[in-house]
Amino acid sequence: MKGAILKQLRSSKDIVSGEYLSSALGISRVSVWKHIHKLQELGYNILSTANGYQLLGSPGIPFPWEFGDREDSIHYFAELSSTMDTAKDLARKNCPDFTVVIAGRQTAGRGRLNRQWLSEEGGLYFTLVLSPDIPLSASFRINFLASLTLARMLRETYGIAADVKWPNDILVADRKLSGMLSELEGEADRVSFINIGMGINVNNDPAGAETAAISLKKILGREVSRIELLSRFLDEFEGRLQNLGLETVISEWKQYTVTLQRPVRIVTRQEVTEGLAIDVDDNGALVVELADGSTKKIIYGDCFHQ
User: Fold this and answer.
1) Does the CA dihedral 252-253-258-259 come out positive or negative?
2) Distance between CA atoms of residues 186 and 136, nearest Å
3) End-to-end CA distance of the chain, in Å?
4) Is the pTM of this model over 0.85?
5) Which residue from 31, 61, 88, 302 could staple onto 267, CB 3.0 to 4.6 Å apart?
6) Please, what are the domains in the chain?
7) pLDDT tens digits, residue range 47-97?
């Protein structure tokens, strides 16, 4: 109902009467007032007069009702330890495909190899729960598709020269804009669920704690709507999954990467590998040429451009 009220208020530049809202939405005027009061508490600047209500401003917080038909699948929390942990609990309880868990900030956000992901106010931190009918062997393509989709969207929507770094970071001028972490569970060689966790520096300023990071606000010189950003990403990502498939993801991803043909240092839990990144194979592994001329395939790890 909050979304329906906001839709009515946003459709008019003038004051909308409580009587009209009551009639249009099929609820009592007292219920209208209660919802308006709650929206005001949540940060919406709604003018209340004897003649009705007028929306003067929105807080830009990704509340579920801001996502239209996706409202029932969106879970927003002002603060979480980690969206990945909450999403895992929901996935194990068989939540619907394309469920999204969003946090205003995370107190224990994590990246690859359990590194901390700084998650201050203003960024976009979410985990997407997917239940694709694919074999485990094809699951890695979901990760590459997520980073590819985000890079393309940033280029087309915001005019930002976003690149992908193996395995799935988003860079702008070699500075980190977004990171991604995925977890999956499966049985009998089929995927039960894949959780894609993403942290995007939107209106926060990560540079103070991480000099190699950058935000959309810093790049564009203005604040960016996290609601619009996430809505566009979800629409484009879901459309690709449903209509175009995963067969060509790796070849498309390589068109946007800045990892290939440059020296890299790959850190895993077991070892550190240095060499020249020369390719990403059909299984998503990074092919590295070592100092002695031999090659090595690395399936997963933290990649540092040298």
Assistant:
1) negative
2) 7
3) 52
4) yes
5) 302
6) 2-57 (1.10.10.10), 64-254 (3.30.930.10), 262-305 (2.30.30.100)
7) 999 999 999 999 999 999 999 999 999 999 999 999 999 999 999 999 999
